[in-house]
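User: Need the bound-state model for 2-oxoadipic acid:
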Amino acid sequence: MTSLAGLAQIVDEAARTATAIPQLTDTLPTLTVEDAYAIQALSVARRRARGERRAGYKMGLTSRAKMQQVGVSEVVWGRLTDAMRLAEGGDLFRSRYVHPRVEPEVAYILAKPLEGEVSAAEALAAVEAIAPALEIIDSRYQNFKFALPDVVADNSSSSGFYVGSWAPRTTDVSNLGIVMEVNGRPVQIGSTAAILGDPIRSLVAAARLVGRAGERLEPGDIVLAGGATAAHPLTPGLHVRTAFQGLGAVSFHVVD
Ligand code: OOG
Ligand code: MG
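Assistant: Bound-state model below.
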């Protein structure tokens, strides 16, 4: 059987070269979720060896809309690096991705470490600020199709993120309306409440799940709470603007 390091190289190279690959579970149907997180850690270690730096974590499949869109109904998480952070208002280069999609999220940045079992109040007390965000997801698997171990090994489709203006951590983001527009037309309408009922629950889950992997959320880490609506496919020429009630908007352009 291919080693975990060998599988990490496969998913990392697929991401680096924007090349679609078959699902790992096609040939390894018994691949466990635990192995998949080990593959993820090894693939992100390859990025770090190339000079990318830790930026935080992303939570995924924290809303029903997202679970239904990809047919996986477990919460997943992945690791963010500084190379994934994109300049708000700027250009997204379509050719750097396999089949990118965008989804509206909420971003937390931490002032204090957070680890293991914490309450929502404890999680919020560790937060420095909260911002509207957009995540660019790009599954490296053909046709954007995967089973749970595949998506986990592929760093939960992490590939880019935009963060809007930071608001004080006391801002109530539990139920804010979201409108995602493409070239001026609404394509997704939702609420931050779609994220586990309140996005702070996603930060609570992040502390627990990351802790289970022997890591902790650190001061300065950004945590993306997960898509509040289904994701929208990106093609050159699209202008995406997403407004979050009371929090501001985040936008970018897709180019070749
Ligand atoms: C998996 C990653 C899910 C989210 O916010 O739900 C995710 C995928 O949809 O490809 O990032
Ligand atoms: Mg996401």
